[in-house]
Amino acid sequence: MNFKRKKRWHSLPGVPLTELDKQVMYWENKGKLVPTRELIKTPEQIEGIRKSGVVNTGVLDEVACHIHAGMNTQEIDDICMNYCKEHNAIPACLNYEGFPKSVCTSINEVVCHGIPKTSDVLKEGDIINVDMTTIVDGYYADASRMFIIGKTTPEKEQLVRVTKECLEIGAEAAKPYSFVGDIGHAIQKHAEKYHYGVVRDLCGHGVGLKFHEEPNVNHYGHKGTGMLLVPGMVFTIEPMINMGTWKVYIDADDPFGWEVITGDELPSAQWEHTFVMTEHGVEILTH
What we know:
Layout: H1 19-29, H2 43-66, H3 73-86, E1 90-91, E2 104-107, E3 110-112, E4 127-136, E5 139-148, H4 154-173, H5 180-193, E6 197-198, E7 204-206, E8 213-217, E9 234-237, E10 240-242, E11 248-250, E12 260-262, E13 268-270, E14 273-278, E15 281-284
Antiparallel strand pairs: 1-4, 2-4, 3-12, 4-5, 6-10, 7-8, 9-14, 10-13, 11-12, 14-15
Helix pairs in contact: 2-3, 4-5
């Protein structure tokens, strides 16, 4: 039996087709996955997300001012929570599907979703990802940074640097009317030059009006696959790059079932920004 895919993009009655309409309808007729109109943010919505991004950046800047060997990750959570309170923001992670804290703090072999706690004390040589999502006036912005505590090994330094390069290369690959798979292909190609593993079980995502929206932004894959990227879409790119295997597991000792660990327990790194697609490429909304 021949099933026809339901159209995701519809022209508006009585409204002439725009260049965006023509491009999206062309690719949908070619059988490609395209966004719905709901995923295209209005200028007012983009401005709201941008304002949330300013606060998100401020949170991570505040962490950068205070992070040091000897502090525990609960102290990082306190910094983030206090900053949000002072700037009329809500930490999106807090109580999200049972997550108990306001920020994710992922040390060394913890890939992501590390839970702040007083028992996790930062040591010289650690690398840590601090991942923050803020809600300001109902708009979401999401970003994370890597921090090196004191002096670490050349191997960890390289992992942190290359992962940031993966984020930048992925952003360069995101062009209007290109595809999500172009981002993943570029990231995977760069990471595998260093024999690193690109995590496949977690991905970037649409964001702005909700914590997680379409599309899923995989950090591996093939050009021309995944959803069509069009101006007005807002999404994260957040490659998780492992020093060894790309495989991961959930820490059995985590009572909340959140912390993701590398399969071989070698270090992992991640950098993340929220981007808006424009007619000329992506613009960063979190710095």
